[in-house]
Design goal:
- The protein contains seven helices and five strands, in the order βααβααβααββα.
- It has a five-stranded parallel beta sheet with strand order 3-2-1-4-5, with helices on both faces.
- The radius of gyration is 14 Å and the shape is globular.
- It has one domain: Rossmann fold (3-Layer(aba) Sandwich), CATH 3.40.50.
């Protein structure tokens, strides 16, 4: 069974905006998704956040084109009312991270990838950086 990676906004931005020094690791993750080694997923909220940030640096047209390409690689997980309720009741200090965590968990993700692991409170879903995931599968 192929594992599903839920990608937080920073991982997507590292790839699309070529953020250094994280671009190489994010690109390696996307190569593994493209090859079918993993399935990639995220939420509509992440798409909205990434567009908001990318449009400032790339312009609206280029940002939209980048997201169209990205959408061809990723599945979209729905943020349910249950995910929202879990986030509201959670001990997360960052509410948006809580929403993403429970969206990923309830959507069937196996791992949540982010560079911001300190704000996550993993319960049933592992949270890793791209570097940690790559190291765990001996690719780094």
């Amino acid at each position: 069974m192929t594992q599903t990676l839920y990608l937080d906004a920073d991982i997507i931005l590292d790839l699309l905006a070529r953020h250094q020094p994280w671009f190489k690791e994010s690109a390696a993750i996307f190569m593994k998704i493209q090859s079918g080694e993993f399935q990639g997923a995220t939420s509509v909220t992440i798409f909205a956040n990434v567009f908001y940030i990318l449009r400032k640096s790339l312009g609206r047209k280029a940002a939209r084109e980048a997201l169209v390409k990205l959408k061809s690689l990723l599945n979209i997980m729905v943020t349910s009312e249950a995910s929202l309720e879990q986030a509201l009741m959670s001990g997360f200090t960052d509410f948006e991270d809580a929403i993403q965590y429970y969206t990923a968990q309830n959507g069937g993700a196996h791992i949540l990838l982010t560079r911001n692991i300190k704000d996550y409170k993993p319960e049933n879903l592992p949270v890793m950086t791209p570097a940690q995931l790559l190291e765990s599968i001996n690719c780094h």
